[in-house]
Amino acid sequence: MLVLISTYWGESQRLRHASVLILETPVTRPLSTLPPMRTCGVALRPANLSEIVPELPDIVVYIEALEQRIQGHTLERVHLASPFLLRTAEPPITSVEGKKVLQLRRVGKRIGFGLEQDLWLVLHLMIAGRLHWQEVESNSRKPLKNPKKPVLATFQFSNGTLSLTEAGSKRRASLHVVKGEAGLHRLDPGGLEILEIDLDHFAQVLQSANHTLKRSLTDPRLFSGIGNAYSDEILFAAQLSPVALTQKLTPGEIQRLFEATRAKLTEWVERLRAESGGRFPEKVTAFREGMAVHGRYQQSCPRCGNKIQRIRYASNETNYCPNCQTAGKLLADRALSRLLRADWPRTADELEGLTRREY
Asked: How far apart are CA 101 and CA 52, in angstroms?
């Protein structure tokens, strides 16, 4: 049997399509003279769409699962397999060992583990970091079963082990050990909790600078926990263009955006909670069944049936429906490049690295 693989490369050298050709009989003549062969095509997602940091709904469900398993239990031992994970030297990582977990808290897109003596472990999963839980079996401590990704750290509790893995070769996930609320405050970019504020406060922060809606919603200094995936869904629900400028929105558009933001985040927390069904969430992904536009480039809009389009710049991508959001106008990458260069961070690392701003 001979297997041939052909590929089609799209813009910016991104692999867009691969075909597998299978010959079940011996080949005795030049391939160019062979008759048509059976093919099996597999469409691939653009590479940059995988660069998605877990967002508010994912982190909320992670924290609820952790509360059920480790709150009230003692963190017996921490093992770091990667020297690049820990970003602080004081307090030392050993200071958290032997301490009981008193609470868990979301700090933007980070997970905070509150321990005795006012110590906090603050974990940022970034793009490829994921958590895994393994119950204690027969009073033994076993490593994660058949890990498909490198294990960067393990946290051993009396009732089980929490493991952190990270796919790929880049080590972006981070762990901080801090003391008290002041330590947590330094790690919090300062974005508002959208489910805890009113319309007036939302409007004030949204229009504090004149940015595109996509940038403003995903800026962790403005709003907490919203990233690339859910901002697409929010803007689609609000029927607003991702490149509309915040200071040019009407009061009605601001109210529509406020309501859509609260509704979509609440909806997806409930959906992910139901999906996990009490199990530890293992399938944290940017692509969810039921999403209207995110990750659905060239698929049909669930509202009007038109094709979902996209804007790409560097490692950023946003999906939208021209008919529902931009009055039928197709937003071209080339035409928007100057605007996006000035308004969007180039990478997820740059976006997540934004620090607190004061108003």
From this structure: 29
Q: Which range, 130-144, 146-160, 206-220, is most confident?
A: 206-220
pTM score > 0.85 for this model?
no
CB 227 within 8 A of CB 198: no
At the second CATH level, the architecture of 56-187 is Alpha-Beta Barrel (3.20)
| Length, in residues, of the chain | 359
The DSSP-derived string for 91-110 is S-GGGGTTEEEEEEEEETTE
d(CA 299, CA 195): 31
Domain boundaries, the chain: 2-44, 56-187, 194-352
Determine the CATH number of domain 194-352. 1.10.8.50
d(CA 340, CA 30): 49
Q: Sign (positive/negative) of CA torsion 193, 194, 195, 200?
A: positive
Compute the distance between CA of residue 163 and CA of residue 131 in angstroms, rounded to an integer. 6
